[in-house]
Structure formats: C-alpha cells, structure tokens
Design a protein that fits this description.
By secondary structure, this protein is an all-alpha fold. It is built from 17 helices and two strands. It has a two-stranded antiparallel sheet with strand order 1-2. Helix 11 packs across helix 15. It is elongated. The chain starts with 14 loop residues before the first helix and ends in a 10-residue tail after the last helix.
Length: 429
C-alpha cells in the first residue's frame, strides 16, 4: 500500500505567492503598456527595430535542443534584447526608440520566436517570459532616458569610459535578473532565498557572462558600424552556446549513469523500487532548506542516490532493504562497503565520504551525511508503517532519535519539506 506524505494546505495569501503574483503582474502590465504604446504611435527607426527583432526571434528559435533546467535557454535572444535596450546610436547617429518600444519589440520578437516551441508543447515558461520583460525594462530605464537627454554623451563620450559604463549597466542588469530568478524559485519552492541567489550568481559566471559581454559588444558595434555588426558579433555567442550545451549534456549523462548504478540494488532485489530516487529527491530538498547550494547539493544528490550501494556486497539481503532497522554496527559495515564501491566509480571523493559516514553519530558527520541518514531512515520507517499515518509515525520516530542518531535541525527541515508535499514513500528501503 502506497503511503502519502503529510501535506500542508496551500495558502493563497502566503508571502511567496504574493511575490510571484506581483512579479507576474508587473511584467504583464509593462508588456501591455509597451505593446499598446508601440502600436498606437508606431515604430521609431523601424529598420533598426526589425533587425533587432529578427535577432531576438532567431535567438528564441535557437532554443532547439535546450536541456531541461537551463538557466538561459536562449542566450542569443537575451543578448540581442539587452543590446537593443542599451543602444544609443546607429552608425554614429542617435536613436530614439525609448523604453516602451524596447520592451514592445523584445516581447513581440520573443513571442514570434517561441511559436514553434509552443506548437511542440515545450514553449518558454511564464517565469522566463516575466524575467525577460522585467530585466530588459530595467536595463532600458537605466540607459535610455539618460542617453536621450544627452547626459551620457556629454559625460562619457564615445571612448573607453562609455564602454565601461555599458558593462556596469549590464552587471546591474544581470544582478537584477539573478534576484528575480531567485525570488521566483523561492516563491515556487519556499527554499531559503540566500542559497538560491548564490546559485543564480554562480550561473552568471558561465553563460550569463557571455550574454552580457555579447550584449555590450553588439550595442557598441552597431553604434559605430551599423546593423552589419549584428551577425558578426553573434557568432561567438552561438559557439559558446553550443559548447555549453555539450558540457551540460555530458553532466546530464554523468548523472544518469550514477542513477543507473544506484538502481543496481533495486534490480538485484536488495532495495524496493524507487527508494534511491526518493531519498535523492528528499535529500536535495532538505539540503536546499538547510542552505546548501551548488556543488554541495550535487555531492548530496550523488551520495543519496548511491547510499545503499554497499548492500551489493552482502551475501544475504537485508529484509526489504531497510538498513535503518539494523544494528548500528551492521549499518556502519554496509556504509563502509558502499564507500569502497563508490570510490571505484570515479565520482568525487566527497561523495564516498558521505556514503561511508552515513551511519555515524550525527555529531561526527558532515551535514550531507546527516541529511542522507535522516531521509533514508524516514523512507525506511514510513514504508515499514504502511498506513495512512506512516509518514507521521516515521517523523515521530526520527524525533525520538535526535539525541544520538539524527540532527534535530535536519529532522525539522525534513518535516517542513514533507508538509509542502515532498515525494511520497513507496515502501521500505
């Protein structure tokens, strides 16, 4: 019988939901005003608007082959949008498209480029669209009014100081985008904001830095050489995008290999179906709740997937694979056997350390091992108590063991994750 995790009733008035509604509302209002104003008054410099619109649309079309979870699946479109927002001149002549036309062109071109993806059922999410609108609007508001008033031209001129100013504005825009992205993830998951923002800032060092640099170069190139600069300066970003996707594909394949290896205990009948996946998902969520991010979460996820691999060295399987119900000495022996196996797979040594130390007293463990131990025990105990109260009974038994076996903060974080609807235990493991 499948048990269900305790779930909290969703609160419509939760601050996170309100934040998401405000962001979406602001993006929607800005979109409506920008498109309405552009349609009413027409396009200023239509040839320039069309050229940048085509660039942004092509960038959205280049989302073909984007991997799930990519922070910026359309870097060429993002760079084109930022360049249009920070465009002050065309071939030495000032442009006058302004803030609202910038947003209107970016939205229209982005929607046009997304049509084929929508037809395939894999169009951009609402959060991605809202971020694009708000980020481009922020960049345009910071640049266009000052440039139109002549203040930027008088103070900085066409020299290196102007280029540095564009880079500074792009840096602020990237920071704004990272904050928006972290707020949206926080609103959906209720994970702590700090670690989410750190992850977003780390992501900026990869494809985000290439997007910002290309946006600045395009704006500067068009200011001097005209629209011929667009195709010339887009090629490096396209090559960067291709290389980044290959790297991301390798990492995805690597994780799938680890997940397949972790399923060996299930295929051999040592653990119930889905146990490793459930422990990995819950451990990842608890790690987020406790402030882990970046490589720490990767180590935690890999260790959680492979935490039972030591059972393959046993002559007689553990009943139902429930190692949490074994004597402590036997748990440690299996953990050490698992660590020895993990060290032969080529994963980072930190993963093996977590697997080896998952059965130690929690005061002697690193935080990832504390998380894996508590989550594994929860899935074991919840499956053993195969009833409607199974998850609640399992949490109570974990709380009773917080003096020695389980860190109280980890158990309470697990309870909060489950209250929001964590993966349901499907049997002992």
């Amino acid at each position: 019988m499948t048990t269900t995790a305790p779930r909290a009733m969703p609160g419509a008035g939760h601050p996170a939901s309100f934040t998401l509604a405000v962001l979406y509302g602001a993006a929607g209002l800005l979109t409506v005003v920008a498109l309405g104003r552009t349609l009413w008054y027409g396009l200023a410099e239509p040839r320039i608007a069309l050229a940048f619109g085509v660039l942004i649309a092509v960038g959205e079309l280049a989302r073909w082959g984007a991997l799930p979870g990519e922070r910026e699946p359309a870097p060429l479109g993002a760079a084109g949008a930022l360049a249009y927002a920070l465009l002050g001149e065309h071939a030495g002549r000032p442009v006058t498209h302004g803030v609202l036309q910038t947003v209107g062109v970016v939205v229209a071109a982005g929607l046009a480029g997304a049509v084929p993806h929508v037809a395939r059922g894999c169009g951009p999410g609402l959060g991605h669209l809202a971020r694009r609108v708000l980020t481009v609007g922020f960049a345009a508001v910071c640049f266009q009014p000052l440039y139109a008033a002549g203040e930027l031209r008088e103070r900085f001129g066409p020299g290196p100081a102007y280029a540095l100013l564009l880079l500074l504005l792009l840096g602020l825009t990237a920071l704004c985008d990272a904050v928006l992205a972290a707020l949206m993830v926080r609103a959906r998951t209720r994970h702590p904001f700090g670690p989410l923002l750190r992850d977003e800032l780390r992501a900026l060092l990869h494809i985000g830095s290439a997007v910002c640099a290309t946006g600045a170069v395009i704006a500067l190139g068009v200011a001097v050489a005209g629209l011929w600069a667009l195709p010339v300066f887009c090629v490096p970003l396209l090559l960067t995008q291709l290389s980044f996707r290959r790297y991301a594909a390798v990492r995805t394949t690597y994780r799938q290999t680890i997940a397949s290896l972790a399923r060996a205990t299930e295929i051999a009948g040592y653990t119930p179906h889905g146990h490793a996946r459930r422990v990995a998902e819950l451990s990842h969520a608890v790690g987020r709740e406790l402030g882990l991010s970046g490589s720490e979460l990767t180590v935690l996820e890999y260790a959680a997937l492979m935490h039972d691999i030591g059972q393959l060295s046993l002559v007689d399987p553990v009943p139902e694979g429930a190692t949490a119900l074994l004597p402590v000495a036997e748990q440690r022996r299996i953990a050490l056997l698992g660590g020895a196996v993990v060290r032969q797979t080529g994963v980072p040594a930190a993963v093996a350390v977590v697997v080896e130390r998952q059965a130690d007293p929690y005061r002697e463990q690193p935080l990832p091992a504390r998380i894996v131990r508590a989550v594994n025990a929860y899935d074991d105990l919840a499956g053993e108590c195969a009833s409607a109260s199974g998850p609640l009974s399992a949490l109570e038994r974990l709380r009773l063991g917080t003096a020695y076996d389980y860190q109280p903060e980890v158990v309470e974080s697990l309870a909060r994750v489950l209250s929001r609807g964590g993966p349901a235990p499907g049997g002992a493991g």
